[in-house]
């Protein structure tokens, strides 16, 4: 909990395999006014293990927000999204697909699986920072998130 605000730290769960994108997203969040921690995994199998608190993730914090790339090794982000939204214990966690894919089938399929929003990553550094800042402002400051 933050002493000044009485708020607990938010947990952002970043599921991303690209090291450069991980670094850029973390950098974009660095000046956040919201107390948070970013937890990162780099494939879909680890993502589901973390969310289900299995194995090495037995003590994992429940995320307040999931940032999910679609193109992941081991288990595709589309499969991860389907599993999250089909699981009664996980389905209320907001999922933001943050991916390079502009494929309409990916967009339609993600919304069919009840993604909360779909955002295409920009390769322009300033635009990517602006995108991440808007995600932070909306999902961590404006929206009321479920506690469990």
UniProtKB/TrEMBL annotation:
Protein name: Response regulator receiver protein
Start and end residues of each Response regulatory domain: 11-136
GO biological process: phosphorelay signal transduction system
PROSITE patterns: RESPONSE_REGULATORY
Pfam hit, one: Response_reg
Annotated transmembrane regions: none
Residues with 4-aspartylphosphate modification: 69
InterPro entries: CheY-like_superfamily (IPR011006), Sig_transdc_resp-reg_receiver (IPR001789), TCS_response_regulator (IPR052893)
SUPFAM superfamilies according to UniProt: CheY-like
UniProt entry keywords in alphabetical sequence: Phosphoprotein
């Amino acid at each position: 909990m933050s002493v000044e605000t009485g708020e607990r730290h938010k947990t952002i769960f970043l599921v991303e395999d690209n090291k450069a994108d991980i670094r850029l997203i973390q950098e974009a969040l660095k000046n956040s006014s919201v107390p948070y921690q970013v937890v990162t995994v780099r494939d879909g199998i680890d993502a589901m293990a973390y969310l289900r608190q299995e194995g090495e993730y037995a003590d994992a914090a429940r995320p307040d927000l999931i940032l999910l790339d679609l193109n992941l090794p081991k288990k595709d982000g589309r499969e991860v999204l389907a599993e999250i939204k089909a699981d009664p214990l996980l389905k209320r966690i907001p999922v933001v697909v943050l991916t390079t894919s502009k494929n309409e089938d990916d967009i339609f399929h993600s919304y069919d699986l009840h993604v909360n929003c779909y955002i295409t990553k920009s390769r322009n550094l300033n635009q990517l920072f602006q995108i991440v800042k808007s995600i932070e402002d909306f999902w961590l400051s404006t929206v009321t998130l479920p506690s469990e």
